[in-house]
Amino acid sequence: xxxxxxxxxxxxxxxxKTAFAWSKYYQEQExxxxxxxxxxxxxxxxxxxxxxxxxxxLANLIKxxxxxxxxxxxxxxxxxxxDDKETLFTGKCGxxxxxxxxxxxxxxxDTPAQGKKCPTCRKKY
Length: 125
Ligand SMILES: [Zn+2]
Ligand SMILES: [Zn+2]
What we know:
Layout: H1 4-51, H2 56-70, E1 73-74, E2 81-82, E3 88-90, E4 96-98, H3 99-108, H4 112-115
Antiparallel strand pairs: 1-2, 3-4
Helix pairs in contact: 1-2
Bound molecules: zinc ion (2 copies).
């Protein structure tokens, strides 16, 4: 039978492995997020140039559509689209999450201070 010390050692190791898997996962998410952000920026720039010279009614319509499309962002934790402003949480760093997902993230953290760090950029949110 393993001793308490051996069990504790194994538990620590499992914890480390899990932490490593999470950090790897978030690094991948971060890269993906950067690409998406670049696409959004591009869309925004093209939308702005595209509306110049257009009928003002049409230009406003495009602007409206664009504003609506802008809030269609993906939550890096559950990978679902955040399409409702009510469920959107935006950190001080500018990263977006579902309110429930970021709450779960905070609950899962080892320490409260860790739970208050953005899973994407690790700044305080
Ligand atoms: Zn989510
Ligand atoms: Zn962040």
